[in-house]
Amino acid sequence: MIETSAAAPPAEAVADFAEDVRRDLALSPKQIQSKYLYNALGSCLFEAICRLPWYRITRAEGRLLSRWAEPMVASLPDPVSFVELGSGSGEKVAMLAEALRSRRRSVSIHLVDISPTALELSERTLGRLEHVSVVGHRATYEEGLRHAANLRSPGVTMLVLFLGSNIGNFDPPAAHDFLTQIRGALRPGDALLLGADLVKPERELLLAYDDPLGITAAFNKNLLVRINRELLADFELASFDHRAVWNAAESRVEMHLVSRKAQKVRIARAECTVAFEAGEHIWTENSYKYTPEEVVERVEEVGFRSAQQWIESEARFALTLFVAV
Ligand code: AVJ
To answer: Is 88 in the pocket of ligand 1 (CB under 6 A)?
Structure first.
């Protein structure tokens, strides 16, 4: 981690956060958007989650990439440019870039992330590779993708990487819209590599999202820590429990924060007081799980054709390569 002190977020970001929290805690059920999980501490906790034995997505995807990176990039005509949406540490895109090096192919890589920490980390990881030029975009996925597409030189083939099952945070209509936007930024012959976690036994899913070390609980409760600090609220952490639920009908794991008692919480900067009943939930995240066929269907709907799918059969995770038609 690069950040050593908790720098205050810009006033504008605080105002947006306050408005979102005020609006979403007035909904029924109460909600907080999952994007707010990723402040500096939340991002560290997520990195820790990725190393937990019970959370297998990151390692399963890493195994697929280290084994199959060469065929994943082999069919893309030169020159190529990669755009990674949500770059994290940059290690995954580096594995694909390494696969090009053995064929003496160079690549320009666009990293899109809202977190400056993630961008710095990825730039450092990729900076070690001589055949790679890196452009960082501190932006939302949509903005960053548009920028990267606008910077494309004629004749360049683009490969968009959307890895780590980040697609799982989108509900089906939002996933459809987002995939449509990706397709809209691409030309026929460009490609998309999509990582998606697969449906698996409930017991495994619940261990991944409610781990015995309590790291996922800390990750979830950090939302309340963040609201307390940034929005001057008085959430009592000990009065909320982390809960993970498998919603089979919707094919998603949900994370919630459950109020242990009837209580009122003042959120000064959101100018509201929120009342909780005992047992009332704040819904903080969805992680949709797919079947391999569903991944193909959802993406083909928006103007891609699937080229190949690689499945990690133990952890049940899929990487699927699509070509824009
Ligand atoms: C980063 C959205 C892929 O849903 O698995 C991990 C986030 N939440 N543990 C996921 C997360 C709880 C993660 N994604």
So the answer is: no
